[in-house]
Amino acid sequence: MRVALYARVSTNDRDQDPETQLVALRDFVRAQGWQVHREYVDRAPANDPGHRVEWRRLLDDGAKRRFGLVLVFKLDRAFRSVKHMHDTLAAWEVQGVGFQSAREGFDTRTALGRLLLNLLASLAEFELEVLRERVRAGMDRARRQGKHVGRPGGTRRPDFAARWEAVRPQVAAGDLSVRQAARLLGVARSTVTTLLHREEGVAEKEAPADAQETA
Fold first, then answer.
1. Is the overall model pTM greater than 0.70, yes or no?
2. Full residue range of the structural domain in which residue 188 is found
């Protein structure tokens, strides 16, 4: 079997090396007698699809059926949320691509793995509803603070700032994906990504000079 290995470390994990994950994955493949198609490695947060270039390449190669299985060290190395995991695994199932995590033992090629896939569908819907409730609570808080919160209409509308402030902390914490935030705000995913990068740039400029030197 041809297997795709995927490893990822966050840009904040300066002391982490993707080779640590890859060594374990290579040993796993060798023990099973499989063949490595390619190693895909990203250095980016899980909720930053714009910088996960190798992940997108893996998805493209999977759609072309260039391998039969995706192997990761842990589930959180590949997926940013339960919904993201369910949607990706559902697409791979149609493409005839299996998925397995070495640490958790999750394997979609088994009957138990397929059962777990159905359970993930329910968990994904539950997770999305929880996120909706959090956003609504954030909007209610913004209203109580005197901020106008209206219907989605782009970043230039005066109410967008309040809605973005309600969503931003959840995106930054990884509880809400860029795609989910864009859907809730009624804007393009690129808009959310641009806002996040802009705020990161402002934070770096506002940092004290001595802090920047020691970082």
1. no
2. 120-214
Residues 23 and 21: their CA atoms lie apart, in Å, by 6
User: Domain total for the chain?
Assistant: 2
pLDDT tens per residue, range 131-170: 777 777 777 776 777 765 554 444 455 567 767 777 787 7
Q: In the annotation, is 177 catalytic?
A: no
**What b/e sequence results for 39-70 when a residue is b if at least 16 CB atoms lie within 10 Å of its CB, and e otherwise?**
bbbbbbbbbbbeebebbeebbebbeeeebbbb
Which spans in 96-188 are helix H?
A: 111-144, 160-173, 178-185
Looking at the structure, tell me whether residues 90 and 146 fall in a common domain. Answer: no
Give the N- to C-terminal CA distance of the chain in Å, as an integer.
45
Pair (175, 85) in one structural domain = no
Q: Are residues 97 and 183 in the same domain?
A: no
Cβ proximity of 63 and 73 under 8 Å: no
What DSSP element (H or E) covers 24? Answer: helix 18-32
Residues 88 and 189 in one domain: no
Output phi, psi for 42, to 5 deg: -120, 145
Instruction: For residues 58 and 131, state if they share a domain.
Output: no
Do both 108 and 124 map to the same domain? Answer: no
Q: Which of 10, 81, 122, 177 is catalytic?
A: 10
Task: For residue 166, give the nearest of 153, 179, 148, 191 by alpha carbon.
Answer: 148
- Note the pLDDT tens digit of each residue in 70-128: 999 988 899 887 778 888 988 999 999 999 999 888 899 888 877 876 777 677 666 66
Question: Is the per-residue pLDDT at 207 higher than 60?
Answer: no
